[in-house]
């Protein structure tokens, strides 16, 4: 049922309990479990800001309204066709009003027009209507200023349906994609086109991922040839049960809108791709069709997998949460074990083990062919070349909280040194040279880092600053840097405003320290930064100190608008010219930075890099691997990052990315991260910045100087030596100004 925190006032009344209602009227009931992000209800509520005025169209028994009222303090109105469901929804006490309406004939909206809704929700409703286009057109007039639609729709091209159609079947059910009451069917393409024709722009989209058999009794492997099934399984849209989109009215041409909508609906998140890979890995092909048969010796997984969807709602309702989580972990272990045992090629395993031994036992003086020694000269960047700022992690030293959370003496090096190769050719562990396993409490380390950065042409550092309503973490290296005037090197700050949890050991729900923004934090934070902002080394744009906020979208938009305005005002009170505020474009944040009160955005790859192909044919030494391995060459060659942005955007590159040190078998990895590939990417964004950014905004960013546990570091290591620093320097020196530069700022 619902999470704790919803008062008793918002439950079903004593005169109308769930047991008294015929089951047919309750078949669309679904509790909102906020921990399950693979749920349309959760994805819908995540698109609704706190305190919104919401119209819940097709509200059924009021589950969504009950959650919005109790957990997000929303004012909710409802519409529903079924009279008994209307009675149940009204009894929750969550709705301002619930009207019984037939959307196929309703034309009187006057009682709702005066509200001016912030969000109108169509949760799996449009597929039940004769003409969803006309209904959407009518409801657009009920949106208030800045209001948006939130729509979820089932995907008729889910693999379970495609395989049925290919076998001349089309089996209706009581619920699901082939619900008997569905009148219209949609794919992502028809959705994108319908929205575009109505002048609706998809702002954000998410997807509910479901395994290929879906809710139907048919096993796809029994319906189509294994080769056909393999083609279907290769399409990520085959696993989409529902698309959940947030839309806003737009005056763009229908053609441009349709293209944009398609791109948004096709942009899978890393989490979604991870779910798809797990489902794809356990597809069982029939023997005799040219694919491997199920000869693992495990129980009949097929029968279990197709029975569980029908038993899951009941099992979840009667099983205590700790037991349920334990069963889920057991299921994942069985799946990965089954996947591992499918590979019976002993030679392949021997190759993996041999490669593993070779990598972990290599001597310190074993240098690869890619190793480059330190340069003997200081780099002189081209005079017109944009300046590069490298993100800098200050966690390489012990501090009290890390001792309490992870064990005495823990630093980032603890994770770095534990990493092992997961597949043949996997570069792990990544170990430092020159600076060694340094401790940032020693200012001598920072002096050497500054010396290296200057020598290879890096302009400055952007330090991650950890501040939680007055509580600082790992601030000692930053204050040491501030106090040492001999560290003559430009810098700026990025407020790393994420809450901290035990993500590194898989316990993502265990919060270590939260990020709860208080009303007086605006002033407290800026005044806390004043010694940094007033330092002569601090990086400015047009005289304004540069400040990055990593995830402002964790808070409500109107609160962030107030925050940024207060930041600028307080800065001026303290004698500054204001602040140049930048938001990181990460975690699917695609709104215009200007709308949230920022001057610009900064990319933060690998976030929002698009659909980067995975590397085929890898030979894994660990059969429990559940992460993804992408091809960095494909990312760089596609050049999607070269498409001009509507607002000022500071481009960012990474030298490599591999968080095996933190995530182990669930790592997110980019393979083929050679210095030449990185150099091409950096050279490209230098040209982009020169062409598209104004004269005072000629900066690019590098992720990062020293993110060793994420495999993203310019600091020299045992395999490549100084190769990435050398590639950085060569990009600066080889830069040639584009004569077709776009004039976008003062001084152009």
Q: State the helical fraction.
A: 25-40%
The main sheet comes to: 11 strands, mixed
Low-confidence stretches: 1-28, 286-307, 342-346, 504-508, 743-748
Give the count of structural domains: 2
User: Given the helix and strand composition, which structural class is it?
Assistant: alpha/beta
CATH topology of the largest domain: TIM Barrel
Which properties best describe this structure?
748 residues, alpha/beta, Rossmann fold, TIM Barrel, 2 domains, 11-stranded mixed β-sheet, 7-stranded mixed β-sheet, 24 helices, 24 strands, 34% helix, globular, disordered N terminus, disordered C terminus
Structure notes:
With 748 residues, the protein is of the alpha/beta class. It folds into two domains: 15-288, Vaccinia Virus protein VP39 (Rossmann fold, 3-Layer(aba) Sandwich), CATH 3.40.50; 387-501 and 511-734, TIM Barrel, CATH 3.20.20.80. 34% of the residues lie in helices and 17% in strands. Strands 8, 9, 10, 11, 14, 15, 16, 17, 19, 20 and 22 form an eleven-stranded mixed beta sheet that branches. Helix 7 (188-197) runs antiparallel to helix 10 and helix 21 runs parallel beside helix 23. The model is unreliable at 1-28, 286-307, 342-346, 504-508 and 743-748 (pLDDT under 50).
Topology:
Blueprint: H1 40-45, E1 53-57, H2 63-72, E2 75-80, H3 83-91, E3 95-100, H4 110-113, E4 117-123, H5 132-139, E5 143-154, H6 159-166, H7 188-197, E6 200-209, H8 220-223, H9 226-234, E7 240-249, H10 254-265, H11 270-281, H12 301-318, H13 321-342, H14 346-360, E8 387-392, H15 400-406, H16 412-416, H17 443-455, E9 460-468, E10 471-473, H18 476-483, E11 491-495, E12 500-502, E13 507-513, H19 521-533, E14 540-541, E15 544-549, H20 557-573, E16 580-585, E17 600-603, E18 628-631, H21 632-638, E19 649-650, E20 652-653, H22 660-663, E21 668-671, H23 675-692, E22 699-702, E23 706-707, E24 712-713, H24 723-734
Parallel strand pairs: 1-2, 1-4, 2-3, 4-5, 8-9, 8-22, 9-11, 11-15, 15-16, 16-17, 17-19, 18-21, 20-22
Antiparallel strand pairs: 5-7, 6-7, 9-10, 12-13, 14-15, 23-24
Helix pairs in contact: 7-10, 19-20, 21-23, 23-24
């Amino acid at each position: 049922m619902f999470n704790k925190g919803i008062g008793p006032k918002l439950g079903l009344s004593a005169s109308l309990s769930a047991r008294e209602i015929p089951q047919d009227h309750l078949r669309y009931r679904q509790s909102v479990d906020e921990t399950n992000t693979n749920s349309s209800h959760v994805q819908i509520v995540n698109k609704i800001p706190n305190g919104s005025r919401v119209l819940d169209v097709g509200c059924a028994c009021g589950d969504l309204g009950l959650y919005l009222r109790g957990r997000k303090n929303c004012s909710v109105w409802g519409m529903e066709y079924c009279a008994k469901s209307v009675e149940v929804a009204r009894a929750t006490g969550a709705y301002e009003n619930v009207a019984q309406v037939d959307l196929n004939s309703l034309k009187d909206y006057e009682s709702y027009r005066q509200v001016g809704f912030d969000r109108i929700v169509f949760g799996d409703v449009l597929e039940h209507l004769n003409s969803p286009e006309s209904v959407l057109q009518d409801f657009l007039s009920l949106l208030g200023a800045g209001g948006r639609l939130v729509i979820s729709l089932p995907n008729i091209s889910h693999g379970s349906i495609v395989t049925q159609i290919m076998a001349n079947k089309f089996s209706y059910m009581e619920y699901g994609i082939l619900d008997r009451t569905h009148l219209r069917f949609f794919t992502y393409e028809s959705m994108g086109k319908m929205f575009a024709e109505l002048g609706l722009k998809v702002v954000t989209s998410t997807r509910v991922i479901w395994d290929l058999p879906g809710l139907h009794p048919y096993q796809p492997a029994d319906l189509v040839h294994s080769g056909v099934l393999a083609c279907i399984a290769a399409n990520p849209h085959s696993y989409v049960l529902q698309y959940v989109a947030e839309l806003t009215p737009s005056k763009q041409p229908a053609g441009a809108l349709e293209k944009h909508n398609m791109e948004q609906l096709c942009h899978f998140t890393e989490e979604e791709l991870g779910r798809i890979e797990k489902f794809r890995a356990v597809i069982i092909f029939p023997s005799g069709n040219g694919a491997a048969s199920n000869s693992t010796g495990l129980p009949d997984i097929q029968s279990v997998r197709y029975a569980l969807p029908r038993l899951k709602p009941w099992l979840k309702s009667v099983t205590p949460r700790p037991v349920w989580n334990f069963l889920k972990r057991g299921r994942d272990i069985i799946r990965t074990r089954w996947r591992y045992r499918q590979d019976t090629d002993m030679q392949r395993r021997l190759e993996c083990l041999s490669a593993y031994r070779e990598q972990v036992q290599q001597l310190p003086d074993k240098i690869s062919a890619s190793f480059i020694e330190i340069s003997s000269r200081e780099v002189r960047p081209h005079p017109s070349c944009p300046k590069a700022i490298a993100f800098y992690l200050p966690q390489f030293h012990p501090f009290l909280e890390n001792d309490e959370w992870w064990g005495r003496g823990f630093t980032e090096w603890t994770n770095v040194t534990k990493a092992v190769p997961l597949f043949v050719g996997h570069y792990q562990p990544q170990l430092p040279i020159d600076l060694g396993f340094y401790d940032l409490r020693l200012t001598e380390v920072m002096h050497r880092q500054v010396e290296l950065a200057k020598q290879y042409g890096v302009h400055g550092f952007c330090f991650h600053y950890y501040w939680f309503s007055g509580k600082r973490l790992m601030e000692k290296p930053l204050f040491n840097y501030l106090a040492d005037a001999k560290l003559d090197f430009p810098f700026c700050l990025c407020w790393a405003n994420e809450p901290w949890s035990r993500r590194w050991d898989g316990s993502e729900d265990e919060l270590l320290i939260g990020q709860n923004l208080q009303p007086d934090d605006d002033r407290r934070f800026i005044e806390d930064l004043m010694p940094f902002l007033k330092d002569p080394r601090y990086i400015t744009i047009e005289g304004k100190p540069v400040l990055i906020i990593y995830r402002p979208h964790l808070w409500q938009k109107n609160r962030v608008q107030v925050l940024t305005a207060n930041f600028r005002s307080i800065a001026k009170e303290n004698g500054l010219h204001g602040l140049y505020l930048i938001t990181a474009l990460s975690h699917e944040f695609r709104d215009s930075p200007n709308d949230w009160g920022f001057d610009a955005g900064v990319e933060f790859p690998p976030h929002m890099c698009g659909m980067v192909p995975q590397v085929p044919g890898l030979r894994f030494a660990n059969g429990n691997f559940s992460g993804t391995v992408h091809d960095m060459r494909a990312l760089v060659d596609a050049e999607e990052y070269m498409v001009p942005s509507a607002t000022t955007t500071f481009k960012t590159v990474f030298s490599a990315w591999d968080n095996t040190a933190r995530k182990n078998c669930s790592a997110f990895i980019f393979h083929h991260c050679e210095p030449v590939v990185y150099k091409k990417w950096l050279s490209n964004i230098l040209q982009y910045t020169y062409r598209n950014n104004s004269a005072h905004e000629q900066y690019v960013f590098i992720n990062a100087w020293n993110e060793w546990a994420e495999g993203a570091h310019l600091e020299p290591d045992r395999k490549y030596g100084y190769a990435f620093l050398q590639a950085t320097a060569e990009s600066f020196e080889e830069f040639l100004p584009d004569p077709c530069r776009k004039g976008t700022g003062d001084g152009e």
